[in-house]
Amino acid sequence: MALPLLSLLPLSPLFALCSLHACMATDSDPLLSFLQRVQSDALRTMGPTDFDPKLYVDLPLKTDLSIAVSAFDSLPRRSGTIPISEFNKFLKEFFDEAGSDLVYAVPVDFKPEPEGFLVKVENEEMRKWALEVHAIWKNLSRRVSEKVKKRPERHTLLYLPGTVIVPGSRFREVYYWDSYWVIRGLLASKMYDTAKGIVFYLISLIETYGHVLNGARTYYTNRSQPPLLSSMVREIYMRTGDVELLKRALPPLLKEHGFWVSDIHQVTIQDQRGHKHCLSRYQARWYQPRPESATVDEELSLKLTPSEKDAFYHEFASAAESGWDFSSRWMRNSSDLTTTATTSIIPVDLNTFIYKLELDISTFAKITGDNSTSQKFIESAKSRKVAIRSLLWNPNLGQWFDYWLDKHDAHQDVYHWNPGSQNCKIFASNFVPLWLLAQYPDSDQLIEDFDEELVTSLRKSGLISDYGIATSLSNTGQQWDFPNGWPPLQHMIVDGLANAYSKEARSLAESIAINWIKTNFAAYKKTGSMHEKCNVESCGEFGGGGEYIPQTGFGWSNGVILALLEEFGWPHDRDVSC
Ligand SMILES: *[C@@H]1O[C@H](CO)[C@@H](O)[C@H](O)[C@H]1NC(C)=O
Ligand SMILES: *[C@@H]1O[C@H](CO)[C@@H](O)[C@H](O)[C@H]1NC(C)=O
Ligand SMILES: *[C@@H]1O[C@H](CO)[C@@H](O)[C@H](O)[C@H]1NC(C)=O
Ligand SMILES: *[C@@H]1O[C@H](CO)[C@@H](O)[C@H](O)[C@H]1NC(C)=O
């Protein structure tokens, strides 16, 4: 297999544009600028061990900003560092605790043992655990304090009414793509109102910002995350038949679609026969360190020139928009994070999600009687399907690959397709289109002739380990790489295979699901909590790597466990341990 040479290319000239925008957004948000100063001083005072920069941009102010700023400016500094006791005194006097602007709220539709809960789970030990996982919804359930509504200028948290489910630990607020798997779990838990509440909240973000934010904070306003809102709506609709929900969701989903096909995201690629195709990429509107990780981004960029810095911050924030932050998938050199080049890549999963968004919009429009929108989106989906098949599918290797845009085309409107620019490295995202088998089994879909070859190609990929599907095959120390296995990736691939018209695919799906459930169960028994990711090589071991310590809670992990148990059940006589 010929590996693309693009990993040797320097940064794209596209980035020349970026410095124009530098320093706009944080400067226009005085609270965020101030909290970043506090964060940066905190690092000097506290030292790097277990330092979490996000903690400081999450602090709610107790007083008006100007008062806190003056107090901060008059703190004593010894050779540039604020003494720890002074610093702690200042924090206590001027801030409430991070996360205290979210309050616990038991969801109205939570029942300790809902009627019809996981009827196929017969094994008592498994059932007991499933009920414990279900009960964690209470722990992860929050309401935004009225304080935020009253004085939004003192909080980076965005106000929202109603009860929501957060991922947990440092992820104190609602996240976009996490919410899809949270909702899958809530549906297994029969918590339809809570699921709808999350959807309404995400819709309100589209109404305000034109897209769903990465998360519910002012510092996430300039990037989104993998677009799965239509999938959330569809799942809820399939359980509840709620046509009002579709009516309410349709206009914002049209707006969101516009965001993903707007200039920043969409590119035109001409194939070898002269046909032009449109596909999308991730691209944040952000050219500075990510506020929640500014000290990390600044440290990483120390060796770069000022204009390279702007480009790097832009690419790094764009990787965060992909949900895969961070990964060799976006890096030209997998041992150097500053070579992250997200906007030069056309991702398989993003285009699968947008394709599905188009099918969902068409379906919702049809149900609600808007035939012309329905027809229009059938056409959009058809074009995208042709584009994905022509440019991302690789018939010889039996999988879809991300595509690297050629930098020589970057100043032109149209890129020229080059088969050597498919990124033939193996990532779990190469198999995400399989998910559509679960979603649109009988309609016009990406996988025209599903056959055993796709299953063989997945089996041979090396991704399937003893305890789950690995994210990639390279152990780079990044969290979206080997040996980590992430719940959403397990779920999409398993859900797709389980719905294929192939016995072998279904049995592969079941065996991956069983091992995934067992390793999560073992980790839970060992540590008392659910983890955001697992190590696929060893039973009961949670995942590591990346920029923060491994997090527990955990929204999507719990959602995937409940969804898999709902799908496959657990017979009396099946062992629960690895
Ligand atoms: C970031 O988003 C905010 C809110 O939508 C907008 O006002 C601002 O201009 C954006 N910043 C950049 C650099 O595009
Ligand atoms: C990749 O990055 C590493 C670490 O910075 C460096 O040592 C190596 O030379 C780089 N490789 C290439 C091909 O540039
Ligand atoms: C939309 O199409 C359906 C059949 O597909 C038809 O029954 C209905 O009358 C059409 N509605 C409008 C408003 O054209
Ligand atoms: C859920 O919250 C309860 C009460 O605060 C706590 O005792 C329990 O350990 C939490 N469970 C998990 C799994 O986090």
Automatic annotation (TrEMBL):
One Gene Ontology molecular-function label: alpha,alpha-trehalase activity
Catalytic class of the enzyme: hydrolase
Organism: Rhynchospora breviuscula
Top-level taxon of origin: Eukaryota
Biological classification of the source: Eukaryota, Viridiplantae, Streptophyta, Embryophyta, Tracheophyta
Matches recorded under Pfam families: Trehalase (PF01204)
Catalytic reactions on record: alpha,alpha-trehalose + H2O = alpha-D-glucose + beta-D-glucose
Protein's name according to its UniProt entry: Trehalase
Residues of the signal peptide: 1-25
Keywords assigned by UniProt, alphabetized: Glycosidase, Hydrolase, Signal
GO biological process: trehalose catabolic process
Family as reported in the entry's similarity comment: Belongs to the glycosyl hydrolase 37 family.
Enzyme Commission identifier(s): 3.2.1.28
Key word Signal present: yes
